[in-house]
């Protein structure tokens, strides 16, 4: 055992006896090692410093459990590593709790998309106006508009219903929409 190791063991023994100068010496001697280790792990100066402070606090509280057969620096780094893991778990738990709370709050924040009484009245008036415009079209144009937009039938279904080729249905529908647009804009 060399002189440095001997001095370290003496300092640890004094710290175990409650000597404040010994605690201060250990803090000064190992601060950079623990802080540097945490800085590499966390990549965050604030977190590294907080964990380092917690490490020394915990180590000094448990100094009597330190076994002199092991390296003091390794013991500190092990405590530091465990504190970092605990911090990560705590943050992950908090994030998951926030996500869950966010999901629940999102459920409550969903807007009521159903139309109000006023909206229904406006829709009915607009629909009545639109139907009035559609009635100005020739009957075969009215029929394709009604089948396509009010009965929501496909081009194929309309072609089968009217017993006409699908291309004729497409042309009739285009023509009906164009005529309806002209009626609406001239109003």
UniProtKB/TrEMBL annotation:
<dbReference type="Pfam" id="PF08281">
    <property type="entry name" value="Sigma70_r4_2"/>
</dbReference>
<protein>
    <submittedName>
        <fullName>Sigma-70 family RNA polymerase sigma factor</fullName>
    </submittedName>
</protein>
<dbReference type="InterPro" id="IPR014284">
    <property type="entry name" value="RNA_pol_sigma-70_dom"/>
</dbReference>
<comment type="similarity">
    <text>Belongs to the sigma-70 factor family. ECF subfamily.</text>
</comment>
<dbReference type="InterPro" id="IPR007627">
    <property type="entry name" value="RNA_pol_sigma70_r2"/>
</dbReference>
<keyword id="KW-0805">Transcription regulation</keyword>
<dbReference type="Pfam" id="PF04542">
    <property type="entry name" value="Sigma70_r2"/>
</dbReference>
<feature type="domain" description="RNA polymerase sigma-70 region 2">
    <location>
        <begin position="33"/>
        <end position="93"/>
    </location>
</feature>
<keyword id="KW-0804">Transcription</keyword>
<dbReference type="InterPro" id="IPR036388">
    <property type="entry name" value="WH-like_DNA-bd_sf"/>
</dbReference>
<feature type="domain" description="RNA polymerase sigma factor 70 region 4 type 2">
    <location>
        <begin position="134"/>
        <end position="180"/>
    </location>
</feature>
<dbReference type="InterPro" id="IPR039425">
    <property type="entry name" value="RNA_pol_sigma-70-like"/>
</dbReference>
<dbReference type="InterPro" id="IPR013249">
    <property type="entry name" value="RNA_pol_sigma70_r4_t2"/>
</dbReference>
<dbReference type="InterPro" id="IPR013325">
    <property type="entry name" value="RNA_pol_sigma_r2"/>
</dbReference>
<dbReference type="InterPro" id="IPR013324">
    <property type="entry name" value="RNA_pol_sigma_r3/r4-like"/>
</dbReference>
<keyword id="KW-0731">Sigma factor</keyword>
């Amino acid at each position: 055992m060399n002189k440095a190791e001997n001095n370290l063991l003496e300092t640890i023994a004094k710290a175990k006896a409650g000597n404040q100068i010994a605690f201060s010496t250990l803090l000064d001697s190992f601060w950079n090692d623990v802080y540097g280790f945490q800085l590499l792990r966390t990549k965050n100066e604030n977190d590294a410093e907080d964990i380092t402070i917690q490490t020394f606090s915990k180590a000094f509280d448990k100094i009597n459990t330190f076994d002199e057969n092991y390296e003091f620096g390794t013991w500190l780094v092990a405590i530091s590593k465990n504190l970092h893991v605990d911090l990560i778990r705590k943050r992950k738990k908090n994030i998951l709790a926030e996500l869950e709370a966010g999901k629940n709050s999102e459920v409550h924040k969903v807007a009521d998309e159903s139309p109000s009484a006023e909206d229904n009245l406006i829709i009915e008036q607009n629909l009545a106006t639109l139907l009035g415009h559609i009635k100005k079209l020739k009957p075969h144009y009215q029929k394709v508009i009604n089948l396509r937009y009010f009965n929501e039938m496909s081009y194929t279904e309309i072609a089968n219903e009217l017993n006409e080729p699908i291309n004729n249905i497409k042309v009739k529908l285009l023509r009906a929409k164009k005529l309806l647009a002209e009626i609406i804009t001239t109003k």
